Amino acid sequence: MWALFEPIHAVAYFAPEAEAAYEEVGLRGYFAGRAAPLGPVGPEPVVAAFFTFAPAMVARARKPGRRARGLRGRS
Predict the structure, then answer these.
(1) Cα 54 to the chain's mean position, in Å?
(2) Which of 32, 40, 42, 60 could form a disulfide with 27 if both were Cys (CB 3.0 to 4.6 A apart)?
(3) pLDDT single digits (tens) 23-75
(4) Gap between the Cα atoms of 8 and 13, Å rounded
(5) What is the DSSP string of the chain?
(6) Are 13 and 34 in contact (CB under 8 A)?
């Protein structure tokens, strides 16, 4: 099933249109876009949510305190 659905799933995060939409609201990169629903949190909850990724990589990609324009405090 993964092989069937992953290409469809991945396009939501890696397509140029998705990246442009993230940047339009002040988010940069895969982790910022995926973690935006968590709100303005530090790296710990994001690292926990993305447990299959290396924690240091996630923490570097998600800077605490970064706020997205137009999202009322979400980062």
Answers:
(1) 15
(2) 32
(3) 888 777 777 778 888 888 888 888 898 888 888 888 777 654 444 444 444 44
(4) 10
(5) -HHHHHHHHHHHHHSHHHHHHHHHTT--SHHHHHHGGG-S--HHHHHHHTTTS-HHHHHHHS-TT---TTSTT--
(6) yes
